[in-house]
Amino acid sequence: MPQSPLQHYLQQVQQGHFLPDSRQQQTLETLEPSFQQLQNPPSPWQQLFKTAPKLPHMYLVGDVGRGKTWIMDNFYQRLTHVPKQRWHFYAFMQHIQIQLQQQQGHSNPLARIAAELAEDYRLICLDEFFINHIKEAMIIRRLWEVLLPQNLMLITTSNCLPQNLYLDGVQRRQFLPTIALIQQHMQVLDLGAGQDFRRLKHAASHYYYPLNENSSAALAQGFSRCSAKQGIQVQSLSLNARALPVIAYAKGCVWVEFAQLCRAPHSELDYLSLATMIDVLILANIPQLSDAENDQVRRFISLIDILYDQQIRLQISAAVTLEDLYVGKMQADFTRTKSRLYAMTHY
Structural domain boundaries of the chain? Predict the structure, then answer.
């Protein structure tokens, strides 16, 4: 019998591998009964008479680096013999779009998709749940109306409380019933503020600034190392039939200008495609970002979210320090990006 997430956490704290954190322990203690219920399926008698308790849904929230994703992934990975699926929210929405294409011609396709998810899985985990667009808001509304009342367990992580989802979004009033559904069916587990555990990594930094000959040479050396000096000098890669000009590419490693990835109109689907091709991204010449480059900032945030989820390592050259990389009104979102950039460039 594998250790439960709570047992594993307590052992790691006792052995000095983790720092104790009361909010993390409380969250794991709350999740423990659900882990035991999933790990020990209901008896045939309970299945026949449907007397097994309904699984709860959990909404993990808190500041950046507080361990939300680690807790969810630890829960997910330690469950054995349970039909389960884990997605980053971008990848989940891509999956839903594919399903919608396959359901063309059917009435109420989102309800059918939600019912199929509930039939296929006992546990669904979604990392970085958030709403950016009215189309996403409406898709999630229809999915959640069918999915949340079902007897499966949904765990999401998010950086904002349910009542703050899609806060300044277009036609937000249409999304308010979804917020009410979340508040009715999901237990909010708040890890609060505190230590950003990603910042505790002590390893060599691959974040180089300012932009000069030294930072350019550092990236060139980085590419030489990760490509074993066999870089294939290609002019572009193909991301969903869209050309991405690159400086150099070798198997598992690409060296590319920031402007080509974030100034050009690439989508989350393009970034998901890129993540399947590489283990290391070398990103050159990031300027200091501000509200004047809002579209670039949003793409950069999406890029880092997707690459972080796929455990891609980064080497970066930038005009300024990591702390000064962005000066603008999207500080809440970019705080998460800075935390992830720190973790991804220290190895």
Answer: 5-190, 201-345
Contacts of 313 (CB under 8 A, 6+ apart): 206, 279, 280, 281, 344, 345, 347
Q: What span, in angstroms and rounded, lies between the C-alpha atoms of 261 and 336?
A: 19
pTM of the model: 0.78
Domain 5-190 has CATH 3.30.720.210: no
Specify the fold of 201-345. Rossmann fold (3.40.50)
Model confidence over 61-112: pLDDT tens digits? Answer: 998 888 999 999 999 999 998 999 999 999 999 999 999 999 888 888 999 9
Decide if 325 contacts 286 (C-beta within 8 A): yes
Q: Which two tokens stand for residue 246?
A: 């690159």
Containing 302, the helix (H) or strand (E) segment is helix 294-309
Tens-digit pLDDT profile for residues 180-203: 999 999 999 999 887 777 777 667
Using a 10 angstrom Cβ sphere, with 0-12 exposed, 13-18 middle and 19 or more buried, the burial of residue 191 is: buried
Looking at residue 2, the DSSP 8-state letter turns out to be P
